[in-house]
Amino acid sequence: MKLYEALARDISESILNGVLQPGDRLPSVRKTSASRGVSPATVFEAYYTLEAQGLVRSRERSGYFVSVGAARLPPEPDTASRPAEDALPIAMSERVFDLLETTMRRDVVPFGSAFPSPLLFPLARLARMMSTSVQQLDPWASVDDLTPGNARLRRQISLRYLIDGMTVPADEIIVTNGALEALSLCLMAVARPGDAVLIESPAFYGALQAIERQGLEAIAVPTHPRDGMDLGAAERALERHRPKACWLMTNFQNPLGSLMPDEKKRDLVRLLARYQVPLIEDDVFGELYFSGKRPLPAKAFDTEGLVMHCSSFSKCLAPGYRVGWVAAGRYTRQLARQKLASTLTTCAPAQGALALYLEKGGYDRHLRLLRHTLASQQAVFMDAVRRHFPHGTRVTRPKGGYLLWLELPGGVDALAVHAAALAVGISVAPGPIFSPQPGFENCLRLNYGHAWDARAEAALATIGRIVQAQMAR
């Protein structure tokens, strides 16, 4: 157990045992650092962890305070999903498009959105970097960086991998128009219409749409809300269906928020290597962790080049720039060809701005503030769910990201909740849009990545009343 984890455990036990009561102030970082003989950074990480667990809250310039005992938080979902074992065609686009339309309206409370608040990002500084990079843009860069992307940006991305202990050459990295293009290009490189792809259950609707768009079939594998895909079930599916690829999110999965442990990631990579099935790893939330260290991607355990690691700056730095990438392993050449044949290149000024921002420094400082904000908002949001939703509601406790998955009491129809909430200006993401087959009818995904204020509190209370009204019928 790391030092910050031990400290967080001790404080957590004090809260659960009633030694620390709601409203009590925790010792200052300096005092705890001195009394425990650890660094201030260790104390901060422990307090961040407690925030992510919903046990403490920070108050600006006042310190950390006990918010609510764990016994009073909504219980977690504790069972894996049970999807049908068949390979299925997908028909999702219309349903998903209806949801996305609502999240584009600023008058709607965006609990159903897949994006955090744009106010969380250093957009003014990025704009200055954009201005500078455009003025310094080499006219030949539009030719030199045509398909793989800006060489300086790819170098900076390669350095980010190195910080995490991974050697990923810049030549293996292809810059894309957001992570979704990277993921779609991966599918195009390894699968053809009619082929099957292994996915989680529930799965990100963008993955389902991409599979549908390319005429592929989906094999949904049981997935646990805490630690991800069931590898035993995955092996049975590999043996039975011989899929052409596996697409999943190992870190803070959308919509569950699950985090696959390192040992399980290693086992996953070994399993897929035995069957020579490529892994398309969607890791857009990897930088939004609440613990002391970024969770490794499955790519870190890949020795055969079978893992195509996809990520983006959209969720953690520059949401409107639409710049993502893929570290494509043995499939680099195939992906470069797919990129050349489809969108050709990615916006040069946006790439230049991001490269300059990363070179100048400040990215990690921004990420620390962003993680702290999201962890604090998660704790407040979960406490509000406890207060406003009926008994029997279960809520995940992600260790990163900004999405919560709610299992509502039996008999509640999430699609009806979605419709009723939208009628009063609130969007939610109903569970059925995350599955290619019937299921998750009583589930919601809610976004806590926007500022918590009186409007958000009232909106969540309204959703709780809608759920209560359904239960009363």
Automatic annotation (TrEMBL):
<dbReference type="InterPro" id="IPR004839">
    <property type="entry name" value="Aminotransferase_I/II_large"/>
</dbReference>
<keyword id="KW-0238">DNA-binding</keyword>
<protein>
    <submittedName>
        <fullName>Aminotransferase class I/II-fold pyridoxal phosphate-dependent enzyme</fullName>
    </submittedName>
</protein>
<comment type="similarity">
    <text>In the C-terminal section; belongs to the class-I pyridoxal-phosphate-dependent aminotransferase family.</text>
</comment>
<dbReference type="InterPro" id="IPR000524">
    <property type="entry name" value="Tscrpt_reg_HTH_GntR"/>
</dbReference>
<dbReference type="InterPro" id="IPR015424">
    <property type="entry name" value="PyrdxlP-dep_Trfase"/>
</dbReference>
<keyword id="KW-0808">Transferase</keyword>
<dbReference type="InterPro" id="IPR015421">
    <property type="entry name" value="PyrdxlP-dep_Trfase_major"/>
</dbReference>
<keyword id="KW-0663">Pyridoxal phosphate</keyword>
<dbReference type="GO" id="GO:0008483">
    <property type="term" value="F:transaminase activity"/>
</dbReference>
<dbReference type="InterPro" id="IPR015422">
    <property type="entry name" value="PyrdxlP-dep_Trfase_small"/>
</dbReference>
<feature type="domain" description="HTH gntR-type">
    <location>
        <begin position="1"/>
        <end position="69"/>
    </location>
</feature>
<dbReference type="Pfam" id="PF00155">
    <property type="entry name" value="Aminotran_1_2"/>
</dbReference>
<dbReference type="Pfam" id="PF00392">
    <property type="entry name" value="GntR"/>
</dbReference>
<keyword id="KW-0032">Aminotransferase</keyword>
<dbReference type="InterPro" id="IPR036388">
    <property type="entry name" value="WH-like_DNA-bd_sf"/>
</dbReference>
<keyword id="KW-0804">Transcription</keyword>
<dbReference type="InterPro" id="IPR051446">
    <property type="entry name" value="HTH_trans_reg/aminotransferase"/>
</dbReference>
<dbReference type="InterPro" id="IPR036390">
    <property type="entry name" value="WH_DNA-bd_sf"/>
</dbReference>
<keyword id="KW-0805">Transcription regulation</keyword>
